[in-house]
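Here is one chain, start to finish.
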Amino acid sequence: MDAINTTIELSETERRDRLRLIRSDNIGPRTFRALLDQFGTARIALDRLPDLARRGGAAAAGRICTSDEAEAEFDACERQGVQLRAPEEDGYPPRLATCEDAPPLLAIRGARDTLMRPMIAIVGSRNASAAGLKFAGVLAHELGQAGFVIISGLARGIDQAAHRTSIASGTVAVLAGGHDRIYPPEHVPLLGAIIAGNGAAISEMPLGHEPRARDFPRRNRLISGASLGVVVVEAAHKSGSLITARMAGEQGREVFAVPGSPLDPRSAGTNDLIKQGATLVTEAADIIQAVGPILDRPLPLSLREPEPEEELFAPDPENHDRAQIAALLGPTPVSIDDLIRISGLSPAVLRMVLLELELAGRLERHGGGMVSLL
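Its structure:
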């Protein structure tokens, strides 16, 4: 299986501007992408932030990351052996780059070529059974022998077993915190072995960021997004691994589940996944057979295809346009397509109004093109 290569290389000026943009207030991956789509470069977007926030109703512009702050982060990354790569660049996992909420800059440590190879995610219970740990290791080893990289979250239990048995063939650890804030701390030696064994670690968080509870679902979307499919070995009801499986489904990835005893609560989640349509797995061949056809499909060339005759740069919206959109929005998420249809506004004008509201801290973006008022 061949790696998928890209040829674009950002200038260092653009890389620093992009870091400043994503580290500024009220800007997440989706907003970042919308700003870049609208203005073309991060520098122009940075210049427009205060005006956009004011037009969205903010009393004061949010904090904009300074050049000195960005330079300090780059220097810290260099000392830690961390590279910041954009979705267009070599070393950024190709399938993750196609996600609508792909990190604008991914912090990478280790072998970049490993990140370009096809990946299978293996996740599961932290409090795993001996049988679950053994089977996770068997799957990871056999998938590695078949040419796949194993990606997981460096957690205790199933994640740990999957990483350990795929060090020789290639494995990727996705971190919930910064590269210098490894969780759990006892897995620092494991991460060292992964990187020394031609593996890699990735994170969207800055150095020094301590992982919090809300950071783990964000990490999980990177695990699923970078992979061809997610294998859940053991998971109780309300397990974080089920969040990864749900995200995989939303991202169009394959979902696999290993069946278990109905008497073991650690198998309740995986058995439910099978009932809901996940592919039942009893051997690595089940996974290899399912993802084979996917490998032959070309990846999308961009995160968002422009709509027919869509304006590249929207004119400034009128005040009555802003009032109309604000009136249509509420705490319940609604699709952008529905807002376009109901309002009768052009997609470009609508997206500009949404940008203004978001930069003012008044709008929240959800998956699947849904938005709501905060």
